[in-house]
Amino acid sequence: MKNIKSAVEEHVSRNIKTYIILVVIFLLGLIIGIIVVNTSTQDVKNEISSYIGTFIQELKDGKKLDYLNLLKTSFGNNFFIVLILWFMSSTVIGIPVVYAGIGYKGFAVGYTISSVVAALGTGKGIMFVLSSMLLHNIIFIPSMLLLATSGINLYKSIIKDRRKENIKLEIIRHTILSALILVVLLIASLIETYISSNILVSIVKYL
Questions:
Q1: Any domain includes 93
Q2: Domain span including residue 162
Q3: At 74, phi and psi to the nearest 5?
Q4: What pLDDT sits at residue 42?
Q5: What is the SS3 assignment for 65?
Q6: Is residue 165 part of a domain?
Q7: CA–CA separation, 171 vs 161, rounded Å?
Q8: CA 205 → CA 35, 50, 62, distances in Å?
Q9: Integer Cα distance of 127 and 109 in angstroms
Q10: Could you give the number of structural domains in the chain?
Q11: pTM of the model
């Protein structure tokens, strides 16, 4: 356990600048997502409130969740994101897409949180967000930052060292890490589907 902790600390220390940049991009995306909701027209806000209200009412009325479909959708989205980040970071021109992907995730989180709070009010909105979004995003967001950092390091290696054997080795390392992260994100999808969803169902009567 101590060796794992040391390895993590060394990795973060070695890539601290990259992580800071990625976190800033994520936070900018989150802020933009919040601003977009808050500056939307009243019609758009009404549509968002109606959608969230209908969803909550259906849960209150005892609608059963389709867990298999939820799992397929969640893991399908995660698989697509990992595939895009893996592929783009393996090309010289793909790194802007990696940054954009992190920014988009921040935007999606900010937009969702702001929409829910706008529809339900601060107290109930925070309750909804914590129950439905917190657990799996604790796994998802750091995993995406790790994968993006690995991709950026691969890009740097390709630029600095043009020897084919070294580039192949770096691509293999990045691919193995991507596969491991995909397994981790499967766990995140399982948590989102079977734990977060049930927590939301259990507290929906208070919303």
A1: yes
A2: 16-206
A3: -60, -50
A4: 86
A5: coil
A6: yes
A7: 13
A8: 29, 17, 11
A9: 15
A10: 1
A11: 0.88
